[in-house]
């Protein structure tokens, strides 16, 4: 599509004319049509005839049908159940399966050609045409060839280039030759009322290509696997609610005679004052829900679940590779990027073929590019970490404000309900989490552009290499951006705080944050809920509203002169997909996958939230690409690319993070140590194993007279006669020989935490290894299909050569082929 303008320079017209002339020389048919709504706009329709399709199908090594697949299909025992959720075969006819081979014009008789119009699917036609458009020259300057429609689009010579949809999404085509696949996809896949149906993946692949199909196949598989994780997580949550009623240590915190009589030391200098422990009554009750024995079991279950998910997805991916003919795609079909080819000015010798090849840079130049790109990535990651430090400083600063304004005592008759829930720690956590979420969203917009600029400079050879490189960079950015605040709360906050008489300071100014007496687990849960839930809501609103509003504005502008627009003009009014396609959809889901696995020990409802979001996400993405976006150029893809090893790395890291959350963030290990050591002096003298007195055992004693003058609080009238206060730690009390040093009980707890961490990691990793070894990446059935196809393909092509030999040699060929009259004629000059 091009736009005429008086201000356009003459050389732009020359480039356009040269480009279109070269397209015609390459065999394409062009037809120009003026817009019905804007006379300045001209659409150039491109058509590839049969000869051009055959020529470039051979150049691109496209695999095409040889003969129908004659392998038997094994019916599943659950077919009766899955039929309830499948789209009726009368509505969407199942695709016929074929044995395929890379196309060769010399062997065209061997391929299964019933109709030349349907032999090349619309997706294949679009791929071939886009391949030509990306490589045709439009100018030669200083012996450097300039080519490709992408360059012309970037310079504004053309406004857009896209394949056409086959019909309106909400109306079936009246043309009997049109399959109306877009209409079927909208009705049976993208429509909200079809949310319970299985995805018609074969039709998605046929219409949009394998790359889009593999994304929705992965997303659907991930969502189905989340059903089990969500069910177990919900049971764990319900167990936590039930155990809340019998939570002894929470009752002690809320008891006016226990928690109400314990005076806690200030958690900041001067501005803070003393406070009663039972101010944290409500938060301790909520903590009982998430910090229970069920959490430990759920963390172990999720470690096994993520391994099963990844292993079963490999098997499913292998099936799709066979069914969609992408088993050997990377080796046979993928071509270099036009941007890469345009800069191939250096000549090198290929060590394998010993032939000269052109590359865009020398070995030294490649090392320089890699060094620069790596340094740039680390620089921007450090900037993200700097923003996290800024949030920490905010937390330290605002805690002083909340401590001075919010109540620190609880009087059941005089304090309002909101004051029971809104403690300084809670207020700081909520505001910091909201600000952190806003900063994350803002940084995302910046780092997306930075990652693209760095990857463009790196100049990868193929589209897969480009996307894998960009994927790695973007995930590193997003990993630090999204998870850094959670890592801080889980593993750093409240771990190095000293004690009231000798606190630890940040930058020599800000006193390090402390956790609630119940620990930081509830704060981590709050952070995860806000970031994960806010991200899901924001992304879905953005994905629905932004393209819909833009398309509405475009339709309003063009509907004044013409109510019925031709297909090419209606598609032009839709939103462009962008160069990266569904890259950001993958990124969104993998970030969610990290939340579901890395910190699930603190939030067992994370899989349930992810399941609900994904059920909506599938239909939103389907609705978006079917109704709001221009049709994407179909692309081949063998797998989900770099996202697979990224998820494997996240799964390995998740075992460590969850074990550390249980060991160091939750209060489970100290409670177990206390429970088992009650009958052993000096830690307890109870004859029965109960949790009575646990809260008192976790609080050390500090003498108020030992406060330093610069940190001593101004005690209100209520605390004028106070001589001691309590703080969360295991230290020897006043009057002890080693006053304020860690007690022996502290080292027992540390030993128990480290022992738990080592044992849990080794057990879970061993189970993961056994599962990975027991489940092969490719099923035996798929292996048999691949071998069968290769055998039949070779046999078919071999028989073709035999027919040619027989045709030329006549009866002599029969005798030779039957093993008779075998001889060799030796000729000497």
Automatic annotation (TrEMBL):
Keyword Transmembrane recorded: yes
Name of the molecule in the record: Anoctamin
Taxonomic source organism: Hymenochirus boettgeri
GO MF annotation list: chloride channel activity; protein dimerization activity
Signal sequence residues: none
Residue spans crossing the bilayer: 215-241, 293-313, 377-406, 426-447, 589-612, 646-665, 754-775
Location, primary (coarse class): membrane
Keywords: Cell membrane, Glycoprotein, Membrane, Transmembrane, Transmembrane helix
Residue stretches making up the Anoctamin transmembrane domain: 204-789
Membrane topology recorded in Swiss-Prot or TrEMBL: Multi-pass membrane protein
Pfam families linked: Anoct_dimer, Anoctamin
GO biological process: calcium activated phosphatidylcholine scrambling; calcium activated phosphatidylserine scrambling
GO cellular component terms given for this protein: plasma membrane
Domain of life: Eukaryota
Subcellular location: Cell membrane; Membrane
Domain Anoctamin dimerisation: 5-201
Family statement: Belongs to the anoctamin family.
């Amino acid at each position: 599509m091009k736009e005429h303008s008086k201000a356009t320079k003459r050389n732009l017209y020359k480039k356009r004319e040269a480009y279109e002339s070269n397209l015609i020389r390459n065999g394409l048919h062009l037809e120009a049509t003026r817009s019905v709504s804007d006379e300045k706009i001209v659409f150039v329709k491109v058509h590839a005839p049969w000869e051009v399709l055959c020529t470039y199908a051979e150049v691109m090594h496209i695999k095409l049908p040889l003969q129908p697949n004659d392998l038997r299909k094994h019916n599943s025992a659950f077919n009766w159940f899955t039929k309830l959720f499948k789209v009726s075969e009368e509505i969407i006819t199942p695709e016929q399966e074929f044995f395929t081979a890379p196309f060769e014009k010399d062997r065209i008789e061997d391929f299964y050609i019933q109709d030349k119009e349907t032999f090349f699917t619309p997706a294949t036609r679009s791929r071939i045409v886009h391949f030509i458009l990306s490589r045709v020259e439009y100018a030669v300057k200083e012996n450097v060839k300039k080519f490709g429609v992408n360059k012309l689009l970037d310079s504004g010579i053309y406004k857009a280039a896209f394949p056409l949809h086959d019909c309106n999404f909400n109306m079936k085509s009246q043309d009997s030759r049109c399959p109306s696949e877009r209409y079927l996809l909208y009705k049976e896949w993208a429509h909200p009322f079809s949310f319970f149906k299985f995805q018609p993946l074969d039709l998605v692949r046929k219409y949009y290509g394998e790359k889009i199909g593999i994304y929705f196949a992965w997303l659907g598989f991930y969502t189905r696997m989340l059903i089990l994780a969500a069910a177990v997580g919900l049971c764990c949550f319900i167990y936590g609610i039930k155990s809340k009623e019998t939570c002894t240590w929470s009752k002690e915190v809320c008891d006016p005679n226990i928690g109400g009589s314990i005076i806690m030391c200030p958690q900041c200098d001067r501005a803070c004052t003393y406070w009663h422990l039972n101010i944290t009554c409500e938060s301790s009750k909520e903590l009982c829900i998430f910090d229970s024995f069920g959490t430990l079991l759920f963390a172990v279950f999720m470690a096994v679940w993520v391994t099963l998910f990844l292993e079963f997805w490999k098997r499913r991916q292998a099936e799709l590779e066979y069914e969609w003919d992408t088993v050997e795609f990377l080796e046979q079909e993928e071509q270099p990027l036009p941007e890469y080819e345009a800069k191939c000015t250096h000549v090198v010798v290929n060590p394998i073929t010993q032939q000269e090849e052109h590359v865009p840079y020398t070995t030294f130049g490649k090392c320089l590019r890699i060094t620069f790109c790596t340094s740039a990535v680390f620089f921007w990651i450090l900037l993200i970490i700097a923003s996290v430090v800024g949030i920490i400083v905010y937390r330290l600063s605002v805690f002083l404000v909340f401590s001075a304004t919010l109540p620190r005592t609880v009087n059941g008759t005089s304090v309002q309900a909101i004051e029971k829930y809104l403690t300084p720690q809670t207020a700081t956590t909520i505001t910091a989490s909201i600000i952190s979420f806003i900063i994350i969203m803002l940084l995302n917009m910046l780092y997306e552009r930075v990652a693209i600029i760095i990857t463009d400079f790196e100049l990868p050879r193929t589209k897969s290499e480009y996307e894998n490189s960009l994927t790695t960079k973007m995930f590193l950015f997003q990993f630090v951006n999204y998870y850094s605040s959670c890592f801080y709360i889980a593993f750093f906050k409240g771990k190095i705080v000293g004690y009231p008489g000798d606190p630890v300071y940040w930058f020599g100014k800000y006193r390090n944050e402390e956790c609630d007496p119940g620990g930081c687990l509830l704060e981590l849960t709050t952070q995860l809920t806000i970031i994960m839930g806010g991200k899901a809501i924001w992304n879905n609103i953005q994905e629905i509203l932004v393209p819909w509003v833009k398309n509405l504005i475009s339709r309003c502008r063009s509907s004044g002169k013409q109510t019925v627009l031709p297909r090419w003009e209606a598609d032009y009014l839709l939103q462009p997909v962008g160069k990266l396609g569904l890259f950001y959809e993958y990124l969104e889901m993998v970030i969610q996958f990290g939340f579901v696995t890395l910190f699930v020990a603190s939030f067992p409802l994370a899989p349930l939230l992810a399941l609900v979001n994904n059920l909506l996400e599938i239909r939103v993405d389907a609705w978006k690409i079917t109704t709001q976006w221009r049709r994407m150029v179909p692309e081949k893809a063998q797998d989900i690319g770099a996202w697979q090893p990224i998820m494997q790395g996240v799964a390995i890291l998740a075992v460590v993070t969850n074990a550390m959350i249980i060991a160091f963030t939750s209060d489970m290990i100290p409670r177990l140590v206390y429970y088992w050591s009650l009958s052993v002096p000096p830690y307890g003298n109870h004859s029965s194993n109960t949790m009575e007195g646990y809260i008192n055992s976790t609080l050390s004693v500090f003498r108020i007279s030992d406060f330093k003058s610069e940190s001593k609080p101004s005690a209100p009238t209520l605390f004028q006669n106070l001589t001691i206060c309590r703080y969360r730690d295991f230290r020897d009390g006043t009057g002890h020989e080693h006053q304020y040093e860690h007690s022996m009980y502290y080292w027992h707890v540390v030993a128990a935490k480290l022992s738990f961490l080592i044992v849990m990691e080794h057990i879970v990793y061993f189970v993961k290894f056994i599962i990975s070894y027991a489940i092969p990446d490719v099923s035996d059935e798929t292996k048999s299909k691949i071998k069968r196809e290769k055998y039949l393909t070779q046999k078919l092509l071999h028989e073709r050569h035999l027919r040619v030999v027989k045709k030329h040699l006549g009866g002599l060929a029969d005798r030779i082929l039957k093993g008779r009259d075998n001889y060799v004629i030796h000729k000497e000059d």
